[in-house]
Write a structure and sequence with these properties.
Layout (H helix, E strand, L loop, with lengths): L8 H8 L3 H9 L19 H15 L4 H8 L9 E6 L1 H6 L7 E6 L4 H9 L9 E4 H19 L4
Helix pairs in contact: 1-2, 1-3, 1-7, 3-4, 3-7
Length: 158
């Protein structure tokens, strides 16, 4: 069965555990790649990848990252969504005592088992002391369930 993904902003915001006004603000500021600002009062339809990226941004914001930075870590519509997203502050940023601005890096990984090898490869002498791992698969599943629920209540069409 093929059906159109048309989950609205309210459903996406609820599944991402953010306020719908926050989501609408991100869209208006161009912080949700792939979404046009459109006119006020019109329903915004989110596809699964865009909704998942919103959830990634929401998770990173909850960890203290600015939304304008988190959106780049979540990626553009043409970027592949990996099962895991490894995010960390670079050594320079940590020493400056900053809060996730330009001195952050992120990498998509296929499994948590890759983390030690990744850190050894990119930081053989001085690995980061802390990092965050966003489980994108969990967020995508949450958004998929929210989509299914939304479609049930709003009469999805083939």
């Amino acid at each position: 069965m093929r059906y159109t993904f048309g989950m609205d902003a309210k459903a996406v915001a609820q599944a991402a555990k953010i306020d719908v006004n926050t989501l609408n603000s991100w869209v208006q500021r161009g912080q949700v790649f792939g979404m046009s600002t459109g006119s006020r009062g019109r329903r915004r339809d989110f596809d699964l990848d865009t909704a998942t990226r919103v959830a990634i941004v929401a998770e990173l914001v909850q960890l203290g990252m600015a939304a304008k930075t988190a959106v780049f870590a979540a990626g553009r519509p043409e970027d592949r969504l990996f099962p895991l997203l490894l995010v960390f502050a670079t050594r320079e940023r940590i020493e400056e005592g900053g809060r996730w601005p330009a001195g952050i890096r992120w990498f998509g990984l296929s499994s948590a088992a890759q983390i030690p090898d990744f850190l050894e490869q990119y930081f053989p002498d001085d690995p980061p002391s802390s990092y965050a791992v966003i489980n994108v698969d969990v967020l995508r599943d949450r958004m998929r369930r929210a989509e299914e629920e939304w479609q049930r209540h709003h009469g999805a069409k083939d």
